[in-house]
Structure formats: structure tokens, C-alpha cells
Amino acid sequence: MMVSSHTRDKSKIVWPPLGQALAATAFFFSLTFVFVYGKTYDWFEDWRISLAAGVALVSAGTFILQHCFSRKRFIDPKAFTAPSVKMATVFFTLVMILNSSSALSSAFMGMAMKLDSVQTASMGNWQILGFFIAMVVNITLIKKGTHHRWVIVGGFTLITASSIYMYFLYQGMATYEMMILPTVLRGAGMWMIYAYCGCMGMNDLDAGKQLGSWVFIMLMFRAVLGPVGGSSLYSNAVYQRSQNHIERYAQDMDVSNSAAASSFQRTQMGMVMQGKSYVEATQMASMSAKGSVQLQATLVALKEISGWTIYGGIAVIIFALIFPYEGRRKRLLPDSAAP
Asked: Which residues of the chain have pLDDT under 50?
């Protein structure tokens, strides 16, 4: 990332101070580690999470002190007060949190559809089609001088539509082809807002002096705080709700449940007929019953969290409609303003 020199020609772009860059990098790296691996290592009960949190605090303090007492600053604090920056960072954070609902799709493809990691990753390639569609839509809307509001509302509407589609798709008979449409919709919605806000954030900034500051702010909210917070939120929600449903369903898996008992006996008998001992057959039947409960609990948890995402998407759409944008007809490209 580059910032402009305040001691040289205004058009001269130089690299930022190395010490401040290292402190900022250490802070975001440690913060990401805490959010991503906190659940895995039982949060602050584990020394690694405590160490990462300590590094985050120390590096953040170091960065602030360096920034206060250095003549050559890493970022321009005035950039944070620009109306276009405030608006862009708000929607950057919201779109990356909602877009983290892709974690639900990944869990569904791995658990219910039994797709391997290569097939799951290949589904993400369909987002490229969504990016292309978003690019065409954005260019068209900009050429027509459309207000910021409708571009942002359109992006969140596509992401919410993807969640609605997935809500009805979370069942055991889904196919790979059914996952394409929600992936394209989510990719298009995310890119409409991401690309538009990335350009719109510079509206009230000096490109010669504050370009580097805007890049830092954009990456901070778009690449660190938004996606890390969103992925942590969804992964923890899936884990907690799945465990809750597993405990509830497991209580019904006993001999008093005729369907569960019949399934257990069929599996057990099948294993015995294949030459397994009675003990091995019982163990495998128990594992099969456990897998069935886990699958059912996961599907219910995914549908439940997807419903929360739909409500969240609707709330964000309403928020985008009433957000106090700067200027009723202010355009992204000033040169395209109508005479």
C-alpha cells in the first residue's frame, strides 16, 4: 500500500513508514487469528488465543503511538471524517458479513451433498459470472446517473434473494446444479456493492494525498473486519445450533422410537449378514444412527440460520433505503453529470 509524501511534490507517491506498516499488519493478523481459531482453541482458555490477543493490543498501541509522534504518517486521519468514506465503510462491513453466509452453503455441500473439497471449491467459480453481471449492471446504472441508494439496495436484494433460495434448498435431495443460481446471485450482489463503494469512497478525498489512506481503510473493513467477523459469526452459529439440535434429536433415538429402532435393526442385521460380528455390527449401526441425527440436526440448523440471514438482509435493505446519503443526485462520476 502507498501513501503520498507531504514533504515532496503532491503528485509524488512513496512507500509508507515500514514500522507503522508492520504494526498494522501484526494487529490485523493477530485479530484474524483470534476470530478464526477462537472457537477451535476454546477462546482465552488456550495460551495461543491469549498470546494473539496480547500481540493485537501491543501492536495496536504501537501503531497509535507511531502515528501520533511520526512526521510521516501511515494514514491521514481526516480520511475517516469524509462522508463518502463513512458511507462506503458501513456498507463494506454489512455486505461482507451477509456474504459470509456462503459458509452455510459450504457446510451444506460437504455434509448433506457429500461433495469433496474440489467440487465445493469449483462451485465458487460460478461467482465469476456473478461478478461479470454486476459489472455490466453497475456500468449501466452509472451511465444513467442512478442514485447511490438504488445500486446498494440492488446488491443487498440479490444477496437476500440468494439466502431465500438456499432456505428452501436445505434438504437431502439437493443437487450440484441447484447450487449454481444462489452462488451467482450472491456473487453479483456482493460485487455490485463492493466495486461501487470502492470507487464511491474516493468522492470526498484528495486522490493525490489520500489514495493510500482510502486503500488502507477499504482493506481494513472489506478484507479483515467484515469477512473475519462474518465468518466467525456464522461458523459459531452453525456449531452451536447444530449441537443444540443434536442433543434434542438424540433424546428420541431409543427403542421407543419405532422408526429409529427399525433403522438400527436393519443396519445391524445387514452388517451381520456381511460377516461382521455382533459387536461390530452394533457399533456400525450406532454410528449410522449418529450420522443420521447429525445430518438432520445440521440441515435444521442451516435452515434456521438462513432464516436469520433473510431477516438480516431485509433489515439491511430497509437501512440502505433510509440511509442519509450525501446529495440526492450526486453521481459516482462527476464528469457524467447532466448539464
From this structure: 1-11, 13-14, 327-339
Domain boundaries, the chain: 84-339
pLDDT at 156: 93
Indicate the helix (H) or strand (E) that contains 3. Answer: strand 3-4
All residues at 6 or more sequence positions from 220 whose CB lies less than 8 Å from its CB, including other chains = 28
Among residues 146, 95, 157, the alpha carbon closest in space to that of 325 is found at: 146
CATH topology for 84-339?
A: Growth Hormone; Chain: A; (1.20.1250)
pTM, 2 dp: 0.73
Backbone angle region of 21, left / alpha / beta, with phi > 0 → left and psi within -120 to 50 → alpha: alpha
Helix axis angle, 102-111 to 278-322, nearest 10°: 160
Please write the tens of the pLDDT for every residue from 134-154: 889 988 888 888 888 888 899
Residue 337 has a pLDDT of 43
| Identity of the residue numbered 231 | S
| Ramachandran angles phi, psi of 243, nearest 5° | -65, -40
Q: What is the DSSP string of 210-245?
A: HHHHHHHHHHIIIIIIHHHHHHHHHHHHHHHHHHHH
Task: List Cα–Cα distances, 302 to 38, 87, 166, in angstroms.
Answer: 21, 31, 9
Closest to 215 (Cα-Cα) out of 21, 10, 53, 18? 21
335 CB-near residues (< 8 Å, 6+ apart): none
C-alpha cell at 175: 443437487
Residues in the chain: 339
Which distant-in-sequence residues (6+ apart) come within 8 Å of 53 by Cβ? 30, 34, 44
